[in-house]
Structures are given as C-alpha cells and as structure tokens.
Amino acid sequence: MKLPVVPDAERDLVINEMFGPTFQGEGPSTGRYARFIRLFGCHISCVWCDSAQTHDQRRYDLAAEQRIVSIEDVLSWLSGGPAGLVVITGGEPLLQPRVVERLVNAIRERQLATDIEIETSGTIAPTALIASAVTRFNVSPKLAHSRLRRHQRIRPTVLKDLTASGKASWKFVAQDVDDLDEIQELVSTYDLHPVWVMPEGTDSTTVLARMRVLADPVLAHGWNLSTRLHTLLWENDRGR
C-alpha cells in the first residue's frame, strides 16, 4: 500500500497552484507583472469564495487540488523569469507560517522578486519573520455577506497586529452600496488605512456593474476603488 506523503513543515509547501507571469488583478498593485503561489487550505469559507478549490470538499476533489512542493522547487520556478512581484495567496497562506517564513526569506536572499505580497483574510497574525520580509499584506476582512459569524471573520487582535506591522493595505469585497456602512464601522473601530473597495464577482459583467454602482460612494468616503483586472481580461479562468 502506498502511504500518503507528509509535508515537512520546514521545507515543503502544500500548494494548490502556481501560475504566471500574469498581472496582479486587485488592490494597490493592480496591473503589475506578477507570479502567484496559491497555497492550499482555508479555515473560513465565504459563500462567494473565488478559490474554493483550496478548501471546499463539497464542490472539489481536494486530494486532486493539492500537491506538496519543496521551497527549492518554488525558488527554481521563480528563477525561470524576470524578478517582479510575487503574490502568495490562498486559501489562507498564513496557515503555513513556518515554511512561508523560509520561503519569503529565501526569495529575498536570492533576489527573485522586486516585491512580495501576501493575501490574507486578517484572521491569523503573521510571524515577525514573515512581516519583516514581505512588502505588503493585502488584508481582506470579510463582511456579513460572506455568511460567516463575526467572531469567525473579525479578529481584533490580529487586525491590530497587522496595522502595527506598517505593511497592511485593507481590501474589502463589496456587493452593493449598503456594504460601505459595515466597512466604515470596521475602518473607524480599528483605524484601518489605506482602504480599497473591490466588487465581488467572477465575471466581467458583474464586476463592471458593481464597480459603477460603488464608484461615487467610494469616492465620497475618500477610499480607493479596486477592479478585478484578471476577471475583466479572462473572466473566471484559473491560472490567469
């Protein structure tokens, strides 16, 4: 009988997919040349999640959606093209802190990226080593329309830790104008800046329609508006 392979927490990442070069599609680095490392696993499950293949066993064969990749193999892949933005996303990448520490520090040491971003839900605090090595955390606290309970999606201590890092940008997924009141409450309570509001949607028609509805109210709040560039270009194709 073939035994399952167990990842080494110091050396191996559990990955869903690696892809690029492409463009960063969201947030403050939208449009930048980028490579993506999507880690497997998530401890929360938003109803509209656009990467449910990383954790939702009801819709996906999770055994087929994950693979164990060594840090050295990831670094070899990154070395195959010009250094640009590297985005570590998920799922929730901070579920694998020890190996992510080693990965981001190795990327820095070998100069395989000009910048490193981590996409996170803001529910797990980064380690000091991760925070020192990355350029930015794109933090996306979930709103009520995710259908998660508040204690699942809003962790005050974690939000404070990310703010204290000085490297957090806050990216809120909104479906309509009413969501902006909830965003304002979180921004005011936890002093979250800078703020990006991004329309929820996995097709270009929905993204554009919601951007048009949100644009003027977001301006009135003095916040930034993010598109989903990859969706406008390639709809819901994976690996783009």
UniProtKB/TrEMBL annotation:
Quaternary structure and interacting proteins, as annotated: Homodimer.
Binding-site positions, S-adenosyl-L-methionine: W48, C49, D50, G91, S140, P141, K142
EC annotation from Swiss-Prot or TrEMBL: 4.3.99.3
UniProt binding sites for Mg(2+): S51
PANTHER family in UniProt: 7-CARBOXY-7-DEAZAGUANINE SYNTHASE
Cofactor binding, note field: Binds 1 S-adenosyl-L-methionine per subunit.
Pfam families: Radical_SAM
Classification via SUPFAM superfamilies: Radical SAM enzymes
Top-rank taxon, per record: Bacteria
Pathway: Purine metabolism; 7-cyano-7-deazaguanine biosynthesis
Protein name: 7-carboxy-7-deazaguanine synthase
HAMAP family (UniProt xref): QueE
InterPro entries: 7-CO-7-deazaguanine_synth-like, Aldolase_TIM, rSAM, rSAM_sf
Biological processes per GO annotation: tRNA queuosine(34) biosynthetic process
GO MF annotation list: 4 iron, 4 sulfur cluster binding; carbon-nitrogen lyase activity; magnesium ion binding; S-adenosyl-L-methionine binding
Function of the protein: Catalyzes the complex heterocyclic radical-mediated conversion of 6-carboxy-5,6,7,8-tetrahydropterin (CPH4) to 7-carboxy-7-deazaguanine (CDG), a step common to the biosynthetic pathways of all 7-deazapurine-containing compounds.
Binding residues annotated for [4Fe-4S] cluster, in chain numbering: C42, C46, C49
Cofactor(s) named in the record: S-adenosyl-L-methionine; [4Fe-4S] cluster; Mg(2+)
Recorded family membership: Belongs to the radical SAM superfamily. 7-carboxy-7-deazaguanine synthase family.
The Radical SAM core domain, residue ranges: 29-224
Record's keyword annotation contains 4Fe-4S: yes
Catalytic activity: 6-carboxy-5,6,7,8-tetrahydropterin + H(+) = 7-carboxy-7-carbaguanine + NH4(+)
Residue positions binding substrate: F23, Q24, G25, R38, T89
Keyword entries, A-Z: 4Fe-4S, Iron, Iron-sulfur, Lyase, Magnesium, Metal-binding, Queuosine biosynthesis, S-adenosyl-L-methionine
